[in-house]
Amino acid sequence: MTATAGGAAVAAPVSAGYLQRKASDEVIYFVLPDRFAKGDVLNDRGGLSGGSLVTGFDPARAGFYHGGDLKGLTQRLDYIQGLGATAVWLAPIFRNKPVQGAPGRESAAHHGYWITDFTDVDPHFGTRAEFKAFVDAAHARGMKVYMDIIANHTADVIQYRECPANDCAYRSKADYPYSTRGGVSGAAINSGFAGDGVGTKANFARLTRPDYAYSPYVPASEKTVKKPDWLNDPAYYHNRGESTFAGESSQQGDFAGLDDLFTEHPRVVQGLIDIYGQWIDDFGIDGYRIDTARHVEPAFWQAFIPAMQARARARGIENFHIFGEVFDTDVAALARHTRVDGFPAVLDFAVQSAITDMVAGKAGTDRLARVFAGDVLYEGGAATALQLPTFLGNHDMGRFGYFVLKANPGISDAELLDRVTLGHALMMFSRGVPTIYYGDEQGFTGDGDYADSREDMFASQVASYNDNRLVGTTSTGPSDRFRTDGALYGRIAGMAGIRKGHPVLRSGRQLVRNQGDKPGLLAFSRLADGVEYLVVYNTGSVPVTAQVEVETSSGLWQSVHGVCAGASSAPGSYRVEIGPLDYKICVSKGLQ
To answer: Which residues are catalytic?
Structure first.
C-alpha cells in the first residue's frame, strides 16, 4: 500500500488498463461529496466568515453544507471499491454561490449545481490539488472518475429591473422578439439579427441589446463573481424569465431562477467547450454526466459532445463516457436525445420507473419488458442501450427504499430487504450500466425527494435523517455508515462480483424469454460467443415453476447464483423453480 497527497491508502499503481474498459463494463457509484466523508474540518465553511446564511454551513439543516469533502472521499475509496464499483460519479465540485433563496427559504449549494466559477473547485470541498489527488488515487486502483457538469445555467446572479422580487414570468420570443424592446410595439433594437437559429458570429454580432424581454442587470456586489469573466455579461443569457418547463421556455427559461445560458450564442458554445475541455486536459477524468440536458437545444450538443470526445482522445482516453440527464420515463423521449442531440447515452429513467413499479408490487413483469423492447429506438439500437446508466433512485427523485416503503406501508423488515435486493439484482444483471446511489448499500431510504434523500454517511446532525427506517438493519440514530458487513452492502458487492466475473452479463445480447401482466416471473437470456446466461426473477409473493425457452444449443447448465437444473428438459426448454422475491442466474456453454 502507498499513500497519496490526499492522505488515502491506495493499492500499488496498476497499469492504465482501466482506459480500455468500455462504458458497459463499469459499475458506477454516484456520490455527493458534501454528504459522504469528512477529511478536513477547516474547509467546512468554504473559507468564509459569518453565519450559515453567508457560509452555507449548517450540519443540522438538510439543505445546507454538512462538511464532506474530496479528501474524505479519497480516504474512503477502499469502501467504494469494496462494494464492486469501478467508476465514481461526483456531483458537481465547481465553485458555487454558497446560499440562494428568498428570505426564510434559503438553502445552500451542497449539491454543487449553482456554479459561479467553472474553473475551480469549491473551497467547501477542497482544492484543485485535492481533486487531482482523488483522481490519481482512483486511477491507481483502476477506477474511473466521472464529473457532473452543467451547460444550461449558472448560479442566480442576474436580476431583472421589472421584477424586484426575482419572480419574472417567462416572456416568449413571439410576444417579446429580439427585434424590439419590451414587446412587439417597443422600440426597434438589434437590427439585422436573424434570430437564434442562425448560430454564426456575424449574426450574433448584431445582437447588441439583451433587454428585448426584460432589463437584465448584475448587482454591483456580484459584477465579477463568475469565471471565466465572459460569464458576467448578461448578453450571454436568455433573460426571458422563469421556465414553465413547457414549449420553448423549457430551453430558454430560467431554471428555478438560475441564469439560463444563451447556448445558441457561438461565444457561449466555444466558452463551454474551452471550460470543460480544460478539465479533461488538467485531470484526465473519464467521463461527463451532463445535468439538465433536455433544457439545451440540440445544436449545442452537436458541437459540444464531439469536442469533448476529441479532447479526451487527444489525452489517450478512448472510452470517455458522456451521458445526459433527461428526466423522462418515455423511451422515445430518451432515445430522441441520442438520435437528434448526439448523446452517446442518457440516464435510463425508463428502466428506473419500470423496476420501481415492479418491485413495489404495482406492475407486472411486462412493464420492464416493454422498456427493453424500445431499445431499438436509440441511435445504435441495442449496442447503445448497453451503455445507458441504469439506476434505482437519486438525489432529485428520492431513494429506491423509500419508493418500496411508500407502496407497502406495512411491509416487514425481511420483505423490505428482499424487495430492495431484488431491485438491485434487476439493475445489475440487465443491460445497461448499474449506477448505485451512495448510501443505498447502507439501507438509506430517505423521506421523499430532494434534500430528504441526501443523507450523511458520517454521523448526521439532521433530525429527519436520524429517524429514518433503514433497509437490512434496525440501527437508527447518528453514526458513521461505512459498514462493510451489512446485509445490503454484502449482497450488492456479491452481485458486482458476479457481473465482473462473467463478461456476457455486461455485454451480451439480451433477449426477454418470459414476462407477464402481473407480479411473478421475468426471465431473459444474455447471449455471446455461443454462451447463454439465463437470468430469472420472481417479483411475486408465491413460488413460481415454469418452462422457459432457451437456445436449442443450450443443453447442460451450471449455477452462477441460486439453484439451477443441470440440463434442459428438452432442446429449447428449461425448467425453473424460484421462490418469491428471488433471482437466479444459470449458464450453459452448449450441449457438451
So the answer is: 291, 325
